Task: inverse folding
């Protein structure tokens, strides 16, 4: 593989730290060309110094020679005192800056100055902490703000979840857990992998191993939609459990229930079952680079396969049986068919009523020719002579 370069940089939010003194750092999710994803932390003063050095390296692209040639984005200088308000308000500018930076010509976006600045440092993996000092406060960007970085509505404090069983990581991008560990969730992905942090550790964790502190998490899940949402299979999967489906790439299916652990209930014709959501994409949607990189990633474990589960909640999650999914799905399909027949019958009635107006008027039938005896008995003498 060639030199390392960055494919995408996403601003996740910021942290308010209290050691060695109160200060703020921004959190960035950096996606590399080897498909790895790392979270790094940078102060705004560091980012600004990086920006100034980048401009000096590329004077033409920074507009120093001719302002019309500038393609390197602008970045405001840090204030004399950066408080929480300025840190928060600056997020939109930083998110847009990172997006533009990665999409600059390769000689800039893939230069060593950019690559080295966003590489993981020792402090990123092991931030300096003090048990006597207050724990850092984490604020996430709202999801809508990531789509529109200039529209920041306010910070979101990270949610804390608890591990219900031991989990051993299978790759360097994941994080191992022990039952009872309390983690902060940085990012929730609908494919069933959540990015979490635990003290000085960070990594991806299966959502199936986590539970919220205030009760079972089915309240976060959507209700089943038996009308179904059209999706396409872009990666084949062979069923392991009895309630899973085996599908091939290119198959079209309908998603009827999206579950948090990344295993969705889908319908193929009149058959229902579980399938990894990370192997599905909306019908008609273009295959993105994010999904392409998941081809080499395994599906997360299902909740039902976790052993030695230890929940702190007396009431467990409400689980819908596969038989209930099938029954309700068939019932919905039958209702739709009945509605289709009724509408077809109504349409036929309307056509029949309108038919006489459209068709030409029917011609009268030609009566049969009368017999010779009938003519002799009923007709005049002149008519007789014609037939005699």
Result:
């Amino acid at each position: 593989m060639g030199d390392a370069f960055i494919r995408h940089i996403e601003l996740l939010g910021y942290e308010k730290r209290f050691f060695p003194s109160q200060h703020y750092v921004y959190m960035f999710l950096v996606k590399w060309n080897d498909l790895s994803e790392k979270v790094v932390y940078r102060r705004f003063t560091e980012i600004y110094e990086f920006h100034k050095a980048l401009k000096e390296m590329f004077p033409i692209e920074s507009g120093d020679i001719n302002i019309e040639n500038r393609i390197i984005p602008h970045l405001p200088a840090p204030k004399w005192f950066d408080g929480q308000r300025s840190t928060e308000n600056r997020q939109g500018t930083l998110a847009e800056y990172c997006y533009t930076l990665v999409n600059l010509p390769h000689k800039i976006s893939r230069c060593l100055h950019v690559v080295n600045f966003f590489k993981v440092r020792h402090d990123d993996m092991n931030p300096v902490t003090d048990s006597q000092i207050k724990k850092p406060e984490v604020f996430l960007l709202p999801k809508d703000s990531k789509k529109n970085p200039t529209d920041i509505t306010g910070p979101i404090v990270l949610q804390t979840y608890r591990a219900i069983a031991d989990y051993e990581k299978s790759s360097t991008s994941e994080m191992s857990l022990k039952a009872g560990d309390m983690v902060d969730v940085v990012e929730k992905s609908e494919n069933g992998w959540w990015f979490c942090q635990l003290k000085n550790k960070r990594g991806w964790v299966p959502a199936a191993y986590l539970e919220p502190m205030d009760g079972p998490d089915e309240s976060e899940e959507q209700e089943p939609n038996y009308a179904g949402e059209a999706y396409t299979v872009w990666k084949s999967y062979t069923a392991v459990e009895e309630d899973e489906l085996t599908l091939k790439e290119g198959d079209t299916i309908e998603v009827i229930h999206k579950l948090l652990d990344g295993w969705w209930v889908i319908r193929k014709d009149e058959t229902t079952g579980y399938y990894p959501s990370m192997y599905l994409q909306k019908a008609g949607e273009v295959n993105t680079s994010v999904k392409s990189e998941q081809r080499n990633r395994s599906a997360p474990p299902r909740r039902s396969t976790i052993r030695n589960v230890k929940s702190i909640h007396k009431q467990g999650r409400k689980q819908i049986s596969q038989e209930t999914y099938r029954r309700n799905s068939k019932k919905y399909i039958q209702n739709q068919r009945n509605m289709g027949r009724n509408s077809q019958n109504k349409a036929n009635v309307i056509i029949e009523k309108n038919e006489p107006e459209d068709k030409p008027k029917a011609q009268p039938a030609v009566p049969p020719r009368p017999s010779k005896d009938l003519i002799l008995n009923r007709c005049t003498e002149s008519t007789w002579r014609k037939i005699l």
In short: Residues 146-156 have pLDDT under 50 and may be disordered. The longest strand covers residues 6-17. Residues 322-358 form the longest helix (37 residues). DSSP finds eleven helices and 15 strands in the chain.
